[in-house]
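Propose amino acids for all 880 sites.
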């Protein structure tokens, strides 16, 4: 299996037999357990792993999860699989939720959160050691590891062994006093350390002066001293060697490696050079690779000679070389026998394949440029990868020559599908051209239809929605009934194409069919995506009850299926937040929207929705500069991804929000906003940006309304109303009627204003659109009170609810340490009206304990000790 756990990576290296005691460093490691994180950072050869190994064998024995990393662990699934296995091995527990996420190709962030949940439930303390952290460079993975570091639960201590400081929140941990640091200067041997090692451990019997010279020449570098000692074992003129010895670490290592090798018999030198290409090895692998056919017996001999051999298991079956020693051996192999390197890798590929280690077999085949063999193994073995190990597959396919991929359209199409799944769409067009070229020489109807489905998805990403719809429909007609992956991809393309073409009914049918087919195929991810996107469409259409039902179904299905990957429900998260904002539930809305922004490059479409919703939330909270800032952050994110359609959408939203900010800044600001509004023209054609164009049109109407440009305001309102009626968007129509209410009111057309507001209330009540009214605040307060008197039943109750919200003014920050939240302002208004906590809970539909918490928070913010003082203080601050 390609996703198998390599237990050799979970083995803590044994304490070296000739260790030099480091009591001061061991004490610092033990003292560091009071915090959460220890970082041991130094270049190679400074004894980081040996120090940890010594510490683990002294003092109190700790449950320890050890994970030795390599470059391939930048694949998130591989990393979290091994880290989970290390923790399970140490604790004897099984963490099924994490295994579920691994099987579902969850995001790195989701896996980090699941790991934190598992760690928080451990019955006792645990030490987690990550060795060679410097190899990690994948941004999404590093972000998830940073989350793990930042939120480590009590009882878990993390140790990072690294050559360089990783981009993790170390500064924050340092500021909290939770970080212990051991660095190169701490690890260097002193003269007394060097004397103990060279004379007592290595038996060289050097004088104090010679010891000092060697220590000074190596700058206390442990690997340098070890190689020097190995080189001097058989020398008669040790003083001469020491006197002529100088240089910095890298040059010392080059020189001493040559010297250490020169002391060994030819068969050992040959064995070391030939096996240097291996990251890990056992006797069988070595026997297959080396020209002398040496295996386990040679490994045992090297172990006795202390030649930088590191055991990787308890029975001394698997080994690796010290990293620095391996680097130098490979350098020498390249210098002395470059022509044999590819042949060695090819032998290694077949040796690992014979033992069932396909992952390493393909790795060595690619290193050996045995591309045909590697392509065969990738073609037959890639399905063994867990769904999320896409980084591994991308690396394999990228290593194959383009000419070979052209001859194998199946693999090239696989590469395109993987790049699409990971959001790397920039190369898809050229890859599809290569696929077509290959199919022109070697026709394959199945691959032709699959490439059509992929081409449709790419057309949607490029904004060519009619072509995306046409290609996805054709693909669905021609794909085999059980071709699950491609059918679901084409189904999602079709639904998204109708969605962004502003064809809501067709999009809704396509989403329903996508979720139905995904259930049939047992593909939970597409079920959740289909329901979430359908819910997002319903929010756009203002169908809040339907949207909430779909979100509840999506979130419930995810929970029932054990899907904890947030990317699957990211569109639902963003749109649920927007729905809650429209219903004036700010606290809940903010939780959803902030979570949605964390997906960033991982799910950029849905992250953009969350940023846009968060900007609207800030606007509704009266924080107009904050609304602009959120969109500026979003624009930087989408520009980094270089996705033109998303950039255009974000730029439109940002320009609109800047105009609304300017509108609140006096006559000069109003003039600036009008300049923006006059530069905007009505755009009614369906397309990817139509939803944004509608928001832009309403904003332009608002600007002209405030500026007194009645004709221009009416033009924009008429345009927005026409599109809103065409698409049956009640929420748009509600906003049109509210703005028209203000326009009639300013003209002195009181009866027309009342009629427009009554129409807005009638349209808004079934779906409880609240925010559209509250955003206009006191401007419609008196009219709303008049209109409410003429209503009855549900409409009157809804109007009275709106009146309560409109009467609650935003809290000024001056005189307050912290502004009251929207809900706290509502509670304060009812307190001032003389209502009890129980009555307030009933009126607002919240629990009694929640009312008490809000009341306590209000007293704290107003610096008062009772309700009477709080009401008086609030009136002084004009909060009532």
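Proposal:
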């Amino acid at each position: 299996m390609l996703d198998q756990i390599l237990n050799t990576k979970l083995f803590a290296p044994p304490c070296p037999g000739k260790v030099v005691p480091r009591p001061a460093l061991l004490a610092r490691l033990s003292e560091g357990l009071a915090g959460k994180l220890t970082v041991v950072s130094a270049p190679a050869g400074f004894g980081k792993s040996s120090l940890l190994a010594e510490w683990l064998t002294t003092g109190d024995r700790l449950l320890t999860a050890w994970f030795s990393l390599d470059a391939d662990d930048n694949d998130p699934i591989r990393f979290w699989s091994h880290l989970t296995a290390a923790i399970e091995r140490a604790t004897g527990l099984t963490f099924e939720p994490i295994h579920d996420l691994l099987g579902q190709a969850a995001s790195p962030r989701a896996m980090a959160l699941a790991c934190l949940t598992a760690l928080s439930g451990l019955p006792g303390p645990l030490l987690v050691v990550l060795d060679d952290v410097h190899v990690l460079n994948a941004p999404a993975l590093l972000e998830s590891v940073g989350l793990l570091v930042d939120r480590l639960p009590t009882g878990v201590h993390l140790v990072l062994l690294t050559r360089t400081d990783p981009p993790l929140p170390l500064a924050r941990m340092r500021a909290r006093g939770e970080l212990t640091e051991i660095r190169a200067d701490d690890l260097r041997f002193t003269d007394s350390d060097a004397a103990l090692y060279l004379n007592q451990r290595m038996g060289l019997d050097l004088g104090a002066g010679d010891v000092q010279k060697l220590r000074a020449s190596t700058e206390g570098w442990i690997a340098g001293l070890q190689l020097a000692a190995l080189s001097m074992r058989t020398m008669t003129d040790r003083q001469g060697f020491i006197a002529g010895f100088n240089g910095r670490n890298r040059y010392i290592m080059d020189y001493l490696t040559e010297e250490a090798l020169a002391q060994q018999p030819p068969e050992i030198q040959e064995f070391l050079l030939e096996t240097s290409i291996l990251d890990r090895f056992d006797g069988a692998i070595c026997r297959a690779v080396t020209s002398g056919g040496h295996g386990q017996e040679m490994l045992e001999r090297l172990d006795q000679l202390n030649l930088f051999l590191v055991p990787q298991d308890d029975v001394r079956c698997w080994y690796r070389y010290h990293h620095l020693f391996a680097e130098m051996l490979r350098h020498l192999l390249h210098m002395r026998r470059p022509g044999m390197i590819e042949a060695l890798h090819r032998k290694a590929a077949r040796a690992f394949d014979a033992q069932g280690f396909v992952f390493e077999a393909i790795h060595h085949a690619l290193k050996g440029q045995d591309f045909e063999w590697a392509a065969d193994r990738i073609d037959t073995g890639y399905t063994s990868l867990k769904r999320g190990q896409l980084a591994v597959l991308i690396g394999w396919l990228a290593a194959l020559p383009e000419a070979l991929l052209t001859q194998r359209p199946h693999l090239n199409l696989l590469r395109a599908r993987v790049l699409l799944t990971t959001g790397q769409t920039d190369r898809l067009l050229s890859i599809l051209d290569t696929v077509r070229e290959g199919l022109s020489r070697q026709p394959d109807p199945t691959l032709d239809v699959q490439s059509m489905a992929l081409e449709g998805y790419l057309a949607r990403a490029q904004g060519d929605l009619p072509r995306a719809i046409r290609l996805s429909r054709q693909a669905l007609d021609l794909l085999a009934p059980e071709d699950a992956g491609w059918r679901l991809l084409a189904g999602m393309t079709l639904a998204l194409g109708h969605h962004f073409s502003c064809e809501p009914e067709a999009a809704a049918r396509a989403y329903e069919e996508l979720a139905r087919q995904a259930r049939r195929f047992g593909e939970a991810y597409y079920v959740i995506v289909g329901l979430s996107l359908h819910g997002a469409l319903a929010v756009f259409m203002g169908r809040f009850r339907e949207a909430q039902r779909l979100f509840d179904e999506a979130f419930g299905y995810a929970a029932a299926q054990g899907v904890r990957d947030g990317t699957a429900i990211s569109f639902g998260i963003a749109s649920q937040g927007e729905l809650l904002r429209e219903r004036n539930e700010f606290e809940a809305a903010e939780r959803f929207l902030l979570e949605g922004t964390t997906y960033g490059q991982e799910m950029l479409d849905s992250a953009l929705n969350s940023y846009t919703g968060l900007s609207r939330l800030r606007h509704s909270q009266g924080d107009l500069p904050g609304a602009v800032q959120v969109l500026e952050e979003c624009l930087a994110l989408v520009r980094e991804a270089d996705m033109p359609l998303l950039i255009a959408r974000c730029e439109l939203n940002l320009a609109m929000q800047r105009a609304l900010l300017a509108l609140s800044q006096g006559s000069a600001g109003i003039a600036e906003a009008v300049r923006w509004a006059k530069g905007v023209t009505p755009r009614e054609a369906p397309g990817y940006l139509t939803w944004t164009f509608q928001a832009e049109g309403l904003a332009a109407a608002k600007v002209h309304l405030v500026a007194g440009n009645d004709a221009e305001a009416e033009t924009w309102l008429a345009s927005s109303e026409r599109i809103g009626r065409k698409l049956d968007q009640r929420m748009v129509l509600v906003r049109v009627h509210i703005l028209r209410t203000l326009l009639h009111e300013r003209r002195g057309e009181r009866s027309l204003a009342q009629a427009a507001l009554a129409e807005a209330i009638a349209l808004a009540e079934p779906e409880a659109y609240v925010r559209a009214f509250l955003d206009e605040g006191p401007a419609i307060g008196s009219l709303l009170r008049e209109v409410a008197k003429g209503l009855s039943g549900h409409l009157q109750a809804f109007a009275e609810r709106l009146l309560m919200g409109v009467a609650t003014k935003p809290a000024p920050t001056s005189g307050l340490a912290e502004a009251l939240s929207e809900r706290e302002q509502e509670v304060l208004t009812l307190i001032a009206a003389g209502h009890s906590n129980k009555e307030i809970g009933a009126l607002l539909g919240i629990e009694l304990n929640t009312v008490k918490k809000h009341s306590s928070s209000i007293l704290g913010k107003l610096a008062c000790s009772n309700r009477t003082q709080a009401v008086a203080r609030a009136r002084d601050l004009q909060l009532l």
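The two ends are 68 Å apart (CA to CA). DSSP finds 47 helices and seven strands in the chain.
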